[in-house]
DNA sequence: GTAAGTGCAAAGCCTTTGCAAGAGG
DNA sequence: CCTCTTGCAAAGGCTTTGCACTTAC
């Protein structure tokens, strides 16, 4: 839970430095965001936040999540299907995703070898990497890990 | 240009097998699609097709490109920025993309090592891969390959 | 008090769809 | 002919924006 405190103070810093304000809505959205599963959608965030603060509007969710991305406490992910999802941005880590197209489960992984290959390839083409995205889509073959198949 | 003929006959087969029709619009869109740069957008296709057939509507472009994807002669790519692009689908090949965020240039590459690692990772998590997507974003460091920097 | 933030509704994109008219097999 | 297609315009999603009101500092 140390990471959570880090994210909270990171946001505080960002707000202070940029002359922005700590509002009730931002606090609630942050709490809800950190408590929920990783890879939440804006709809899910809205529903959860409205349980605490019913008047909260979708526009505020959009604006707040954009703020969180700018403050580097959240990452935006657009997987196939066009739904945008957000995940907490933990300290300098980078990971990629495996997505089960049956149950929708999203696994995260890190792979040093792939990262290195990417660097080599980028160098070969004369590019300096700023970001990358690797998504593997597949179907669970072990029932135990696939919610869709009756667990 | 052998691939082009392959794609044309692949489409013919698909139409025949499914009881669909060869229309002037489909022929024009296919020609334009194959002549244009890889990774075209629907707007670009519309403009180009309208030079040959002014009445052609955007809905037809959408429906036709969806048809091409179903017939496996085109692949749909959604890079960052939310613009959907299409590229001709050549025979069983798979490649990934390097994208320069300055000039917009898109490079294609294939990497056996990365493909293998992906298989291993999927197996580790109990998934059977159906598809994957690897996009590396960066900035050109060699002026010669970056249109944005004055070539 | 003043600038920033919020909620609502309206407007913007891109994409899909319903429908009457048109064209291919 | 009979079905598939087309073009247009309308409708759908998701996301952004304008504006008057409210709140934090």
Structure in words:
2 copies of one chain form a homodimer. In chain A, strand 4 (96-100) and strand 5 (106-109) form a beta hairpin. Helix content of chain A is 43%, strand content 23%. The mean pLDDT of chain A is 91. Chain A is globular and about 50 Å long. Chain A has a 3-stranded antiparallel sheet. With 151 residues, chain A is an alpha+beta fold. In chain A, helix 3 (42-52) crosses helix 4. Chain A contains 5 helices and 6 strands. Chain A binds chain B through residues 78, 80, 82, 98, 100-101, 107, 109, 111, 113-114, 117-118, 121-122, 124-142, 144-146, and chain B through 78, 80, 82, 98, 100-101, 107, 109, 111, 113-114, 117-118, 121-122, 124-142, 144-146. The structure holds a DNA duplex (25 and 25 nucleotides).
Choose one word for the global shape of chain A.
Answer: globular
Oligomer: homodimer
Order of helices and strands of chain A: HHEHHEEEEHE
Q: Structural class of the secondary elements of chain A?
A: alpha+beta
**What is the number of beta strands of chain A?**
6
Residue stretches of chain A low in confidence (pLDDT < 50, at least 5 long) are none
Distance between the termini of chain A: 28 Å
- Our Rg estimate of chain A from Cα atoms comes to 18 Å
Strand order of the largest sheet of chain A: 1-3-2
Strand content of chain A: 15-25%
Question: What's the tally of helices of chain A?
Answer: 5
How many strands, which pairing sense, and closed or not: the largest β-sheet of chain A? 3 strands, antiparallel
